Amino acid sequence: MSAIPMERPVLGDDEAAALTGLAARVRELAEATVLTGAGAAEAAAVADEIAALTARLTAERRGAPPFVTPGERRMDRQIANPVSGPLNPFAPPIGLDVTSDGVVRGEFTLGAVYEGPPSYVHGGVSAMVLDQALGMAAAATGTPGMTATLETRYRRPTPLGVPLKVEAKASRVEGRKVYASGTISAPDGRVTVEATAMFIMPQRFVTSEY
Ligand SMILES: CCCCCCCC(=O)SCCNC(=O)CCNC(=O)[C@H](O)C(C)(C)COP(=O)(O)OP(=O)(O)OC[C@H]1O[C@@H](n2cnc3c(N)ncnc32)[C@H](O)[C@@H]1OP(=O)(O)O
Asked: Which residues in the chain belong to E strands, given as ranges?
């Protein structure tokens, strides 16, 4: 049982645009925080100002991230997803497109907040990006599901601060199970991470709109 309810408020266009802008500023703030050379006193002063801003936002707090109206299925309306959601400051965010033949593609650059080994992307972040891309490829078959297995193979370090590509495609559907694979590649075209995954449409969602 989750502490976050399933029922969601739906944002109008103006509010969605304003909150998207807010998330972009908070994303910049996160990067500024990990890179700042401000001294202790300045960092403490800025922390106090941010605490005041957080209190302003929390004054009207929702119980769950909101949705937007476009899209027939719930996953199309979810704009606070941690990989692709423009409303989520934690998300890079990565724009992922699905071609008519079911291939998911995205281009993205990851900054210092996603660092694992010095100057390279954290392996868990790469896995998260691939989980999302492969999940979208699975959903494109018409059988959206939850990740049951995700296997990643880290072939070489994934560089920060340069344009990366992610690509994914489903290979087969067996009842409620969908198998998919994908890669992240560096600007030189070499694959840095490969992934295979199996998604299962939960029995409880078979008759719902998920
Ligand atoms: C477009 C959006 C993209 C989103 C991408 C990101 C997606 C996510 O992050 S999802 C979050 C992470 N995943 C989860 O939290 C999933 C947690 N697990 C579950 O909810 C359930 O175990 C779930 C949905 C995987 C399967 O549940 P359920 O529908 O009850 O399956 P169940 O009836 O027990 O089993 C069905 C079949 O799957 C198999 N199976 C179930 N779970 C697994 C598993 N983890 N690994 C391998 N096989 C499995 C069973 O053995 C059974 O096989 P068979 O048909 O051959 O007997």
From this structure: 10-11, 67-68, 97-98, 104-108, 146-154, 164-174, 177-185, 191-200
Q: What is the mean pLDDT of residues 187-196?
A: 98
In 3D space, the residue among 182, 155, 153 whose CA is nearest the CA of residue 170 turns out to be 182
CA-angle at 21, arms to 15 and 24, nearest 5°:
140
Pocket around ligand 1 at a 6 A CB cut-off: 75, 131-132, 135-136, 139, 144, 146-149, 200, 202-203
Task: Please indicate whether residue 131 or residue 76 has the higher confidence score (pLDDT).
Answer: 131
Instruction: Indicate whether 56 and 100 sit together in one domain.
Output: no
Q: Residue 124 domain-assigned?
A: yes
Question: What ipTM was assigned to the predicted interfaces of this complex?
Answer: 0.96
User: Which residues are CB-neighbours of 144 under 8 A, at least 6 positions away?
Assistant: 73, 75, 135, 138, 199, 201, 210
- Give the distance (Å) from ligand 1 centre to CA of residue 151: 14
Task: Look at the chain and report how many structural domains it folds into.
Answer: 2
SS3 196: strand
